[in-house]
Amino acid sequence: MLYAYLSVLVLALALGVLGHRHAAVRHRTVLQGAWQQLAPLLIRLPIALIAASFIGELIPQALFGRWLGESSGIQGILIASLLGGILPGGPVVAFPLILVFERAGVGLPQLVAALTGWSCFALHRTLVFELPTLGWPFVWRRWLVSLLLAPLAGLMTLWIL
After folding, report:
1. Would the pTM of this model clear 0.85, i.e. be above it?
2. Residues 33, 119: Cα–Cα separation, whole Å
3. C-alpha–C-alpha distance, residues 45 and 95, integer Å
4. Structural domain of residue 82, as residue ranges?
5. Which listed residue, of 3, 33, 113, 125, carries a Cα 20 to 30 Å from 135's Cα?
6. Number of C-alpha atoms within 13 angstroms, CB side, residue 65?
């Protein structure tokens, strides 16, 4: 986790130096834009983490281990892919839930499949945005070509391990 933070910090500093070299870049405007994106997260993220922790306490860990643990294999990857597709909300909700799953003993291939399922299928996004704006012909074709992505990502993770 430390490497991720350091990588983002180095990237931000490098972009700041590059931005400083261009007269058109206003640092104040950049910082105001960053604050506008960060401020809502400072409220939402702690609440989402607390809610996800409660969910983790309410669901028996034995259930996670049996259905989604390392030993669940391909069956667990398929279940995790479906579970990921029905996870509600955006990243502020999904990532804390994935963190809870990890702490509950869900295997790494299953976590990858769940997160990929959430990214590719996202039932909430499909119902609210895609279906009303793009219609069924687009949605079912997108789902058809995306169907194997989450299980494939989980299987590839299993193979890498």
Report:
1. no
2. 26
3. 10
4. 59-160
5. 113
6. 6
**Sole residue written with tokens 């994106």:** 37
**Domain co-membership, 78 together with 117:** yes
Q: How far is residue 123's CA from residue 109's CA, in Å, rounded to a whole number?
A: 21
Helices (H), 59-130: 61-68, 73-86, 91-103, 108-120, 123-125
d(CA 123, CA 83): 10
Torsion of CA 82, 85, 88, 91, to 10 degrees: 120
Tell me: the pLDDT tens digits for 43-62?
Answer: 877 887 787 777 777 777 77
- The CB-side HSE value for 79 (13 A sphere, CA atoms) comes to 15
CB 120 within 8 Å of CB 80: no
Task: Specify the residue for token string 């490497």.
Answer: 3
Looking at residue 89, its amino acid is G
